[in-house]
Amino acid sequence: MTIEERSNIDIIQEKDNNIIGEPYETVYQKPGTLIDVDMHYCPGCYHSLVHKLLMEIIEEMDIQEQTIGVAPVGCSVFAYDYMDIDMQQAAHGRAAAVATGIKRLLPDKYVFTYQGDGDLAAIGIAETIHAINRGENILIVFINNAVYGMTSGQMAPTTLTGMQTTTSPAGRDTNIHGHPIKISELVAPLPGAFYVTRQAVNNANGVRRTKKALQNAFNYQRLKKGTCLVEIVGNCPSNWKMTPIECTGFVEEQMMKTFPVGDIKLPKAEDLKNLKEA
């Protein structure tokens, strides 16, 4: 190697060092309320994304010390390992009942449950409906991926008509298995339901709308007017037998036909006026 070639290499290395050493503006970082550990979720699963949104909101609202979450049984059973807030584990399906006890004992805390369709809509449907009917001042975050993810893909109450699962290998037959249960539409008419919405996180706009819905629900707890339910259309690459990209298309083309996104029950105008004054 000639002296000239060595000089050129030195110049390049010096430029690289200068670039690396320059201070950069931080435009994004994960929230401090999200514990810095690897998550156990399958690649492409929306659970990790929704966890991040929740923790971003709690950090932005500066309510980390005032928030209590209730973890379910299901894929998100280890939510307490990722959320740096007070968390309580509930028995299978009983998250809304546990949250009721916490909120009644600590009425000034922000209390939310995080549940999948098996936990909330199957074994826990009684606790869910009665908590909402009573108007418990809690937030229920409902992840609907239309399948039992943790236990190898059995049919869920929300499994789509014709959708194949390990317990409906020929596809869900409404004559045998009944129809997919639309939880949000089911509970919205209850007098204790204050805010009910269904959102999705399969694209950037959906992520933004979901975050806004969750922010609204946390804020509405201050009014103590009833239960908020935010349903999020989820996915399950492993049990749907799809790639994450294929799941995104399936959510858009199939899931949203049965579970259309949008607000289902909104607060009254006078209640929102009271929120601004609170």
From TrEMBL:
Claim: Oxidoreductase is one of the keywords in the record: yes
Gene Ontology annotations of biological process type: cellular respiration; small molecule metabolic process
Record protein name field: 2-oxoglutarate ferredoxin oxidoreductase subunit beta
GO molecular function: oxidoreductase activity, acting on the aldehyde or oxo group of donors, iron-sulfur protein as acceptor; thiamine pyrophosphate binding
Family matches, as InterPro entries: 2-oxoacid:Fd_oxidoreductase, THDP-binding, TPP_enzyme_TPP-bd
Residues annotated as domain Thiamine pyrophosphate enzyme TPP-binding: 81-231
Provenance organism: Flavisolibacter ginsengisoli DSM 18119
UniProt keyword terms in alphabetical order: Oxidoreductase
Gene3D superfamilies per the UniProt record, alphabetical: 3.40.50.970
